[in-house]
Design goal:
- The complex is a heterodimer of chains A (215) and B (273).
- Chain A is α/β, with parallel strands linked by helices and 215 residues long.
- Chain A is built from seven helices and ten strands.
- Chain A has helices at residues 43-50, 73-79, 94-103, 111-120, 137-149, 167-183, 195-201; strands at 5-14, 17-27, 32-36, 58-63, 66-67, 80-83, 155-159, 187-191, 204-207, 212-214.
- In chain A, the strands form two sheets. A six-stranded mixed beta sheet of chain A has the order 6-7-8-3-9-10, with helices on both faces. In chain A, strands 2-1-4-5 form a four-stranded antiparallel beta sheet, covered by helices on one side.
- In chain A, a hairpin with a 2-residue loop joins β1 (5-14) and β2.
- In chain A, α4 packs across α5 and α5 (137-149) packs parallel to α6 (167-183).
- The radius of gyration of chain A is 17 Å and the shape is globular.
- By secondary structure, chain B is mainly α.
- Chain B is built from ten helices and no strands.
- Chain B has helices spanning 2-14, 17-43, 48-72, 78-99, 106-127, 135-166, 168-176, 181-205, 214-221, 226-259.
- In chain B, α5 packs antiparallel against α10, α7 packs across α8 (181-205) and α9 (214-221) runs antiparallel to α10 (226-259).
- The longest helix of chain B has 34 residues, at 226-259.
- Chain B starts with a helix and ends in a 14-residue tail after the last helix.
- Classes of the chains: A alpha/beta (215), B mainly alpha (273).
- At the A-B interface, α2, β6 and α5 of A face α7 of B.
């Protein structure tokens, strides 16, 4: 059976130190899987391996049954989008940020589509013309989510989406992620150091050791 | 024996009263260098050894060049002049590498930029009749163009490398959305080019009021008309700007292969704390 995403026997070594070894994971369409583990265990590294931003020491990553190394990196990263832990805003307005992701693929979205993308992440702020760098941490995280969703990915990879946020912002971002999972027919992989948070969204949790738990 | 005799006579002929006076001034100026080194050490600027080596090397280089220039200034052959400018470009790329020794690929990246930027501008200027075909004009002007191209090469490379370290999150965000290496670094490149041109733009804006450029002063001291000297100074600025922009565009694109591999993964290491 071909899975949407398969990680097989992934290991990563930095300077002779084994970060993790023998990591396996499957992800299906309409499934949300959480990756948990202590700080420094390599959770974020796994997401970077999935989008070929890092090459694992051993192991294979298959997207729709084909090794990710067979995909042209840009094509792969349009189908599977990583939203990093700290949502970096590019210079300019929120509109510029949303359009930037599209423009690098020679795409364009109407004003209505940009507003819909912001609504989807519960950012009803009428802030398309605001300077993105001036937004709060939670707002930036949701702009980063909207920027990724406009490219209509098949897999969304979320790296500690609320780790740098206060309680109020965390609830807003969690709500946005909940909407995405409910409405989009995609696979979602969430890295979090907070198992309680992961359980709220995920169908399954995978510990970085490879041990799996049902919900 | 005859050749040896001529060489000694030539060298003896160089030591005039004027040269002895200049040498005394040079020795006195070393006090200023010592002050600079003390300040550098005190403030932890880390440029002391570079200044000492640079002074020794620079003195030898420029004396040698001054002696050679008297011969080269007689050249009126474009191939010979371009060959001299190419050697200057080689040395400029080597110098850029020496000052950025922690960054890979500096020489191989900077050389094509300096060569193409410097030589193309000098050739176009000659073809347009802006600069007359003489070593006396083309080599000093080419030196200034190449020197500025060297500076902007080093600045663009340094800025691209350090931004990839300091703003790694933004770089990774761009790549994660499917950006090419160029798209991911485009803003840094533009900023580096603007920053690299800024000192010359300032000098350009204050031309004749705050800054009295050496090239113009040299022409006037050499007996040229002040208006002729002034117009050539403006010409040299325009040539410098064009060479710098051509150089920066080439260098910034060529340097990408030292920052990213074929899988668009970042090769720049995290900074050493």
């Amino acid at each position: 059976m071909t899975h949407l995403l398969e990680l097989r026997n992934i290991s990563m070594k930095f300077n002779d130190t084994v970060l993790f070894a023998g990591f396996d994971l499957d992800l299906e369409i309409n499934e949300t899987v959480g990756i948990t583990g202590p700080s420094g265990s390599g959770k974020s590294t796994i997401l970077r391996i999935v989008v070929n931003l890092l090459t694992p020491t051993t192991g294979t990553v298959l997207f729709k049954g084909v090794s990710i190394t067979e995909y042209e990196p840009r094509e792969l990263r349009r189908k599977m989008i990583l939203v990093p832990q700290e949502a970096s805003m590019f210079p300019g307005t929120v509109r510029d940020n949303l359009q930037w992701g599209l423009s690098i693929h020679k795409l364009h979205a109407s004003e209505g589509k940009l507003e819909s993308a912001l609504e989807e992440v519960n950012l009803n702020c009428d802030c398309l013309d605001d300077i993105a760098g001036n937004l709060s941490g939670g707002e930036k995280q949701r702009v980063a989510l909207a920027r990724a969703l406009l490219l209509e990915p098949e897999v969304l990879l979320l790296d500690e989406p609320t780790s740098a946020l206060d309680e109020k912002s965390t609830l807003m971002v969690e709500s946005a992620i909940g909407s995405i999972i409910a409405e989009r027919k995609i696979g979602v992989l969430i890295v979090t150091h907070n198992p309680a948070q992961a359980k709220r969204f995920t169908d399954r949790l995978v510990k970085i050791t490879g041990e799996q738990e049902g919900k | 024996m005859q050749a040896e005799f001529d060489l000694i006579a030539y060298l003896s002929g160089l030591v005039t009263d004027e040269v002895i006076a200049a040498f005394n001034s040079y020795l006195a100026a070393l006090v200023l260098l010592a002050m600079l080194i003390i300040i550098s050490k005190w403030q932890g600027l880390g440029i002391g050894s570079k200044l000492v080596v640079g002074t020794i090397r620079g003195t030898a280089q420029i004396i040698l060049m001054a002696l050679i220039l008297t011969q080269i200034f007689e050249f009126d052959n474009i191939v010979l002049i371009l060959a001299v400018l190419a050697v200057m470009s080689l040395f400029a790329a080597y110098t850029a590498r020496q000052n950025l020794d922690e960054i890979p690929g500096v020489f191989a990246t900077a050389l094509p930029g300096i060569l193409v930027g410097g030589l193309s501008v000098m050739t176009i200027a000659w073809l347009l009749g802006v600069v007359e075909l003489s070593g006396e004009m083309m080599i000093p002007m080419g030196g200034m163009v190449i020197g500025n191209a060297m500076n902007i090469s080093a600045l663009v490379i340094d800025r691209m490398w350090s931004n990839a370290q300091k703003q790694r999150g933004m770089l990774e965000s761009a790549l994660a959305l499917g950006a090419t290496a160029y798209q991911a670094t485009e803003l840094t490149i533009r900023e580096a080019i603007r920053t690299g041109l800024l000192p010359n733009l300032n000098r350009y804006a204050a031309l004749g009021i705050v800054t009295i450029p050496g090239f113009m002063s040299g022409l006037i001291v050499g007996g040229a008309s002040p208006i002729y000297a002034a117009l050539y100074q403006v010409i040299i600025f325009i040539m410098i700007f064009l060479a710098c922009v051509i150089d920066a565009l080439i260098v910034s694109r060529r340097f990408l292969k030292h920052m990213f591999n074929e899988n668009l993964q970042i090769l720049v290491p995290f900074p050493n704390k």
